[in-house]
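Hi D.,

Good news: the full-assembly prediction came through. Inputs first.
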Amino acid sequence: MADSDTPLGGRPGSAGVNPGEEKAEFLAALCAQVGATGKPWTARDPVSEPVIRAWCDAMADGNPLYTSPDRAAAGPYGGIVAPPAMLQVWTMVGLHLGGPPERAVEDTPSAGVYQLLDDAGFVGVVATNATYSYDRLLRPGHLLTGTQTLAEVSEEKSTGLGVGHFVTTETLYTDQDGSRVGSMTLRILKFRPGTGRQGPEDDTAEERQVRPRPATNRSTDWFWDGCRAGQLRIQACDDCGHLQHPPAVRCLSCGGADLSHTVASGRGTLYSWAVPHYPQAPAFDYPLVVGLVELEEGVRLVSNVTGVRPDQLNVDMPLELHWLDTDDDTTLHQFRPAAPRRRDSTLAAGDLEVGHRLPLSPVPIDTLLIVSTALATRDFQDVHHDPDAARAKGTPDIFMNILTSCGIVSRWIGDWAGPDVGWQSIDLRLGAPNHPGDTMTLSGSVTAVKSTDGHDLVTVGFEGANSLGTHVSGTAELVFGDLPGDRA
Amino acid sequence: MSRGAAGRAAIIGIGATEFSKNSGRTPMELAVESCEAALADAGLPAEKVDGIVTFSAEQNLEIEVARNLRIPALRHFSMVPHGGGAACGTIGQAAAAVHAGSADYVLCYRAFNERSWHRFGSGVQGRHGGAESFDISFSWTSPFGLLTPASWVAMFATRYMHQYGATSEDFGRVAVADRRHAANNPAAFFHEQPITLADHQESRWIVEPLRLLDCCQESDGGQALLVTTVERARDLAPTPAVIAAAAQGATDDQQAMRSYYRDNIAAIPEMGLCARQLWEATGLGPDDIQVANIYDHFTPLVLPQLEEFGFCRRGEAADFLRDGNIELGGRLPINTNGGQLGEAYIHGMNGIAEAVRQVRGTSVNQVDGVEHALVTSGTSVPTSALILGQDS
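Then the structure:
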């Protein structure tokens, strides 16, 4: 992967080769096992439908080839297959509260490196890059074995999270017959908490100012009561049914005085927008996107549009409603790009050209998503479920694990491509973490199309951005059309 | 104004303070100075004045101005609402008053320290409560961060760009023309400071899609104009600038600055209403106008104004600008004083004074053969417009 030494805003070379003898010795110890290959590690359980279903539930992946026996039987593979993005899941060490695992994690060459780093205070851990290549589809019953090689340990680097070392491993996956099914290159950063450029949390920060509150009277309070109740209400004339916004005291169509309201569906499109940069009011986050939203009921209203960068705004883009509590008494309607629908029939070879854009997809991040997906990917690292542990390791809150970033990106691409799309590889580079309360918006486009033998090899470049920056970026290689025979 | 007043009144005096970012004086001093200058220009003693029309946004009360000018009696006094939309409306109401005989000489003025005192562009950040309809109206926009005039206008600009294919550069052409005209005007804040389209494109965002150079700058200053009947005007020294017609307009689910709910927000129907009234009252059309002051607090809304008056077809103003029509020597030179982007932002009153100079033949950017000059007032609010002409 290109320029992989600088995730998280790292400055390659700024920490450089440290002339200090101690550091040189430490680095030598870290690198002693580079090139070593650990013992093959066979999964406890074979690929199975319940584990696939749990993963699909957590990732919101509705591809029927993963979970619906009938649909899968009629599909290109003749039966249930596992999501390719689950490749790493099957050999995860898992949770062993009742006793040690049959195979100790210490058997991998990276384990010794992690221990050295932990002992030296580099206790923080984040995954920064992962490349998965998929040689064959997995089906229930496959039993995977992973064999890890320690590929590289970096010199000390200065990154946004802190001073640390990047550790790169390469894992080869084989099935019960010894046939290769895929591989993974994973790079993690072990860092010293508190040494990042972000610095410690400032507890003395001024309490955030609240946004201007809506002024209300008896002619409009029903609207704001509705917001608090999770209903976007539109004034409706009891006589002629006319809908209008902002509310008035007479029907603007027939003059009727008997006015009530209807509840909007929450679906609409962007009619126009403005992005204030200056002056900045302290209650708002900038850049602030303010949209004029045309509801499908036919009225317009002003709202923030969240989960989208100004350069991603398009008049007429589909939007969906959500809510924001701005103080104890105030809930405001907000809109974000509407989640794209899953395609039922797969795109065909020849359907795609370079530049074709994938639909924006906002992914609201909350604790439930982070924890449930960590569990569904069998990742029990405490930074993905325990806020205190996460803080002790240098991050302000729990954060999404890389297997989930991979899973959600794969689900979004699969929803766009269609259920039968073939997967060759996915390459992810991680940056700003996904913490609860944020929204990650996925965007991407086709960057290459190669046509051969009745199928197209299509490369998709993607990015998932949250309020802190780019959470994930990378590329995926997909196959449309007749799949090469050996892949199924 | 009533159709009967068309062509029956004239502007006979204009007067202004200097335009600055810090006047060093109170707004009342600016108001009185500008009124004194207008009276001196006309050669009329203050005791003859018996009417005052100003903006409802004006903070200098007419009675205090009258007291300072030693005006003994006011028979007509009124205010026109909606900020810069009032400018031509004050002249129209003054013209109606002198035509109806409710006053003989009417002063119209606007004076403020909108830069050195309360900054006008800072908007409504502090507005939180109240139950009157004006307070309520902000509830639909302020909680979402639309707090400033630039932000309210940006919503129209984005839609206009989408519907008609106009670009940020097209908006920039308005700023370039204004600043080129201002460069020749010693009274302009940006005297001898022209800009290029590249300067415009490099200027920072204020509210996308508006850049810094799309926005007029808050100003300190005052501008006054004196209106009387054409007959009385002929007894005074200056060339009368006859008020061929003036009109006000509010229509089509009109809101203050935020008429976001009408069918087409890329048009300005209240300005179209003014245009139709002016053409009807005067029998004139776009081809009869040689020079115009098109309200330019923000450049994007200049484009639909040109369309509402029929200088080009709907959605084609960008082409009109690209062809250089709005600069000196073009089909319709606009804002020959530099406009509000280049001279000063006195809520459109300085644009009316420039139209008077064009009719008199005394502009620093004089257009040849001016028979009629058009002036428009604030856009995105209930507005007004007028046509000045020669005394025949």
